[in-house]
Amino acid sequence: MTDQLRAADPIVERLLRSLGAEQATLVFPGGAPLRPLEHVLISDEADRPDSGPGTLVLLLGAQGQAALRQLRFFAEGAPTAIAVKGDAEELRGIAAAVLPAETALIAVHPRTRWEHVARVAREQIAAAQPSPAERPREREHDLFAVAEATAALAGGPVIINDGSARLLAFSADTDGVDEMRRASILGRQPTAEHRALLKRWGVFAAIRDSETPVHLDPDPATGVRRRVVIGINVGDQHLGHLWVQEGERPLSPQIDRVLIGAARRLADELVQRRDARSSTIRPDLVAGLLGGGDRLRSAAHQAGLDPERPAAIVLVHAPGGGEPGAAARLQRSQVLNLIAIHAAAFRRDAIVGPLGTHIALVVSGMSQERQAADLVRRLEDIVRDLEAHTGVDARAVLGAVAPNLRELGATFPAAERGLAVLAEPGRPRVARVEELAAPIALRECLDLLGDWAPQHPGLAALLAHSGALAPTLLAHLEHFGDVSATAAALGVHRNTVQYRIRRAAELAQLDLGSAEDRLLAQLVLRLAENRGALPDLG
Predict the structure, then answer these.
(1) Span 134-275: which CATH code?
(2) pTM above 0.70, yes or no
């Protein structure tokens, strides 16, 4: 290893020191990695592996300049580092041309065995991990949050088991829980008697290879209440099962759809428990998909999305209540998990994550108008369920469909402005950005005007007046001068509106019979409203 170069990733740096200069040389240090080194991949081009951020790729099958094509191939995923056998100076000449900024390149001596490099790398990765209890506890919190969100949507208490029926998480109890649920929680798995009963009913066989919920009628002889179960499966891998028991009130009519979404959401969480990968609620992926260049390619690779397919972004505004703290974080977790369950039910590869003060949902493959209409209906369900189960008054906007992921980021500003429009009184709670073209364009115009103020003493005097004259005049202009409609919108008598309009016109020195005066007044008043400077109605 040269004295001049140091790897940006500290685990890669420790790996190099452990191997020593006689076995490995740092050729290209790489910039700050998208993810720290987490696992080792020994592969060649034929494998088509997951070689994204967090990966050290040990490149088999070619050395030096002959490895150029394979380097290009693996560099597309922006791994943390690539190791290839060959001369350091020869590789240094090609590194900058083919590697993304985040990826380090290591030249390994031809006589060094790849098994030795992999063993040392895994030792360094293990040494950098948190304590054994720390990471499972974080993932366990995620599972309990999913259980609570699912219980709220399904209308009954939830149990999540792994593939061996061991208890992983459960929601809070409600009235009417039966002995099977109590025993499964206390014993951390079903009793032998209950397991035999479920096996006799064919439950385990029915859920192992299917994404269809299984409904079990109540059994008075055993005291088992009605429940619904679904398998948590990824391909041919059975990871676990999700149970919802009916309590004193009926389960939701949408129980099947809720469980399908929850099972897909949980499939990703249970895979995390196997390979320590991060959650599908991924702010890093959302931000990456809205970016460009290497970052976008890496995020698409991690998410399993085709960068060439059409995609759309949804922005959800779900304001939290109270001061920041544990309660606010819990509510945010509930909101994220509820949205993630709905999103997974709509599309398995949907990506959800917080983005600033909003929550973003990226959906790929939006190639048909019907899919956009279906997504709008699902957003209406999300907004309604957020209010019902978390008390959050949410708004959601579907951005324009981009022809590919590279152009998705360009749709974000209009979607963000559209979400701000939906926060205005009288607006719908869910809309497509195309439906908000006029108010979005008006907001862009007002933003361009910035701090502009017209040289009009009358309008300045009107805005300085602390009463209800200015907001009443604005409402009157936006209702096309219709006194009755203005009165209904403000909740006052029409005579009150007529008096206020007359006083406002006198104070502002306006001729409301003039189109120019009306246009100027409405523009100035809307600009004041946009700045938060419009007087209150009082």
Answers:
(1) 3.30.450.40
(2) no
